[in-house]
Automatic annotation (TrEMBL):
Name listed for the protein in its UniProt record: Integral membrane protein
Transmembrane annotation, as ranges: 128-148, 193-210, 256-277, 289-310, 331-348, 368-387, 399-421, 441-463, 511-532, 558-575
Disordered, as annotated region: 1-25, 762-784
Entry annotated with the keyword Phosphoprotein: no
UniProt keyword terms in alphabetical order: Membrane, Transmembrane, Transmembrane helix
Entry keyword annotation includes Isomerase: no
Organism for this UniProt entry: Streptomyces paradoxus
Amino acid sequence: MERAQEHASTGGPDGPATRPGEPGTALELLVHGVGGTTPQEMLNDPRTVRITGDDTAAVFRRADDVDAEHHPDDRRREGPVPEAYVWCNLTSGNGTRALWLLLLPFMVVNLAHWMRPSAHGRRRTVRLYGLLVRLAALTLTVLLVAAACEVALDLAAWQCAGTTACADRHSWLGFLSPSVSDGGWWSAPGRRLALAAVVPTALTVLLWYLSRRTWSDYESQQPIERAPEPEGEGGPTALGRPGFWYGRRLVARLRAAHTAAGLITVAAAVASAAARHDRRPGGPAVLDALGLILEAALAACAAAVVWVVCRRGRSERRLDRTLDERFVRRLPLVALVLLTLSLLYAGWERPGWTSEGRLPGDATFGGIALVQGLLVIVLGVVAHVLHRTDPDRRAVLRGLGGPAVAMLACALGGVMSGGVSQRVSDWLDGTGASIEGPPVLLTWQASVIPPLLVVLLGLLGWLAHRAWQLARAERAAVALDYPDEAQDPARTRRIAYTRAMSSLTDRGPRIVAVTSGITLLLGAGALVGALATDETPGEAAQGAYPVVHGAAETSQALGSWLIGLGFILFVTWGRRAYKDAAARRTIGILWDVGTFWPRASHPFAPPCYAERAVPDLTWRMATWTRATGGRLVISGHSQGSVLAAAAAWQLAPSARKRVALLTYGSPLERLYGRWFPAHFGPAALTSLHRDVDCWRNLYRLTDPIGGPMRLPGAQVDHAPLMDPLAYGRTDLLPLPAPILGHSDYQADPVFAEERRKLLARLRPEDPAAGEVPSPRHQPEPPAA
């Protein structure tokens, strides 16, 4: 293995394998797309050798090509030496990654950070945009921990354990019940709450541990250290900045703040109940004073958390290896101390204290919903201002994609938290009415789900009608594309339908816009209804018209049932993915798209695989071209093309000029350029075309993901590839050719021809020329 790596990377111990002026070895670095594959499939050879890397991500070659640099004129080989970079284990590896489904709202809100519109000269407005997203992400952490507190503290320890009928049905709560345990030591309300606080505290610690562990496994690879390019804003895109793919400082800082926020949420839930009891007339003055001091300390710590989140964003202009030790270590420690004091305070003996009704603090969920709505609205205003500064006609929703996605993240968090609370309440209460259940707002939020589903069904109907119209229009185009073939109506309809369905991807922004807008309006209505009536929708509609009352009762019952069903499906899918590799790969595809971006707003989001993959590719290209002076084509399919572009941006300018880029089935413009205009907009892609030696892009009309780059004045896009390759049976293709869509681009002869043209344009150069990484800046070995 070491010898294979030595030959492939350095050309052997005697120096470069070629001399300037010789044809040299050509290398094609293949990068697969979403879902992953095997090196044997990528290289079309059952015998492969790992050149460099580990079990998580690695570069492979065919066994016959291990020492190809020493035999540049080997006639047995046609075309360039293929290498395969396999990164699928970064997103769909072992079964524990199925648990990342629970982090879905965190991932979605992190995407909103990167969806800001492009703007020049508005640095303060850009910083305000990032600040608002980080605050929205903080509310999601508080919401998740508050939901855990609702389940463990309110429903289980406070309501069920404090009610004889409920405690009798659940014997495991008997030692917490005053009646069942005959006034046992743990039956005091404060001690019950202190014991139940272990659940949300453990959840917070688990999130902290996963964030810290995944950073070590995925995001600790250091990019090539180099000087930033001489432009004030880092060029048309920030992806070329030296520190873009190394966000250690911000992730550590946000991890400390969010961990402290979770612990403070638990402490406030426990301490507020005891303090409310102590403030009653005739209560103990000492405990009343201690309660006030403790609540003031919790408020001060919460203010410190918000300050830490607001104080600093990402540091991208240089490779920042420092840590803010004062916040990273001390803030969670202070919050843990306050939590411990809150548990001791609540566990103090208080004769005559009983648990009745719901746990004090129902307004928490209403406050979180109100803050989230305001943050999304202000974020929309800021995004609109940025879009007007530098309008981009291709940007989705006229620059409002980020606020719309942030709204969906908040809605996901509300549905998940409300679903858990509602299901646990129904399970504890059974068919009776012994406990009051979760806060009224959660019931209102469940009740708005049926109207939202009606809107979504209407959107799906519109999409189906639009697909039917497009398919009819495409039939004539299919006949023109195959003019010499005897037309088969069934074959024509199938090709036309595939093209029509692939074009629906471009209607995605409308779906997101309508869904987020309706969600915001329905959420506001649920909040107003809960605060105004303090009753469930069915109770609030009593006395109204029978139609209104019936609709409210139906929506409430159906919403609760749908939340329960969704929660069960969610858990079932996660459990299946834990055991089933195929289902785990499906979830991995979601993360392939959603976790490309670094964790810039939420530290508990699933880890960013690109912080491992992009440095891997950059180091491979830089060191190989330096050592051999040969020609290199980085060939990326689907999401692999996004990784290839990001790696090319990270190369030094002189190294970029020695690399050709071949993309196929690429979402660079169709998805990333529209949804992330500040980083993949027209200016960024134009600069990439200008910086690399040459670039060619292949796409099909039947591909729902890949598309053209649409760069003005640049010959990047090839004409749409024919799909299928043949309309009917031919001498070369006696069986019907399949419609390939997004897959198997190498099967088209155009692929090999375009690769040959790219290699013909490249010329070998002196390995000593250009900016290259020094030996002392080698990448750190991957964490164990």
